[in-house]
Amino acid sequence: MVALSCIDSRTPVELIFDLGMGDIFSIRIAGNITSRKVLASAEYGCAVAGAKLMLVIGHTRCGAVSAAVKFLGSRLTAAEATGCQHLDAIVNEIQRSADGMTSQLSSEPSSTEALAIVDAVARENVLRVVKEIRQQSRTLDGLVQDRRIAIVGAMYDVVTGGIEFLVENGLGETE
User: Using CA atoms, how far apart are residues 30 and 51, in angstroms rounded to an integer?
Assistant: First the structure.
């Protein structure tokens, strides 16, 4: 298995799935987003090393997603607010998953509502990344078309430890 997950220490895929040494190719990046380097790693894991599953796993209460939501519509960039020179690259990528949720952010949401918004954006982010992997990698898309691998999204709940697999129906909607 190739797993694309977040760097959050609460989400070690090896432990979540009770995997041992050598059982997984783990790619970790804040917000479980994709890039050319992420795609190269996933392509190697699947096309060369023979992994049959690529799992994109997001999680609840994600700090990277929280930052993306916080800076949506803000006058400051994430880099300006945090001093992290390259953080905008991640925040901007995740914000693409919040398009339909900007109306929910116009007022001051309660902490419960804010968590729900962050979790909804995290879920959309997983679905978007799964689609982008296939759009951006002919190698991985070809392996899916040949039924040699599957690319699946999932959400891990950091509070309960539960995992929800996100399966799209033919209409591009999750079931």
Answer: 23
The residue ranges of every structural domain in the chain are: 2-166
Residue in the structure block whose two tokens are 């799992």: 55
E strands, the chain, in order: 2-5, 25-28, 53-59, 150-156, 163-166
In Å, how far from its chain's centre is CA 79? 21
Q: Residues, the chain, total?
A: 175
CATH class of the region 2-166: alpha beta
CA distance 168 to 175: 6
The residue to which tokens 């690259």 are assigned: 89
Residue 17 and residue 91: Cα distance in Å, rounded? 28
pLDDT band, residue 92 (cuts 50/70/90) = very high
Whole-angstrom CA distances from 72 to 81, 88, 105, 119, 123 are 13, 11, 8, 15, 17
pLDDT tier at 172, thresholds 50, 70, 90: very low
User: What is the C-alpha to C-alpha distance for residues 91 and 64, in angstroms, rounded to an integer?
Assistant: 7
Identity of residue 135: Q
Strand partners, 5: 28, 57
Q: Which helix (H) or strand (E) holds 53?
A: strand 53-59
| Per-residue pLDDT at 171 | 40
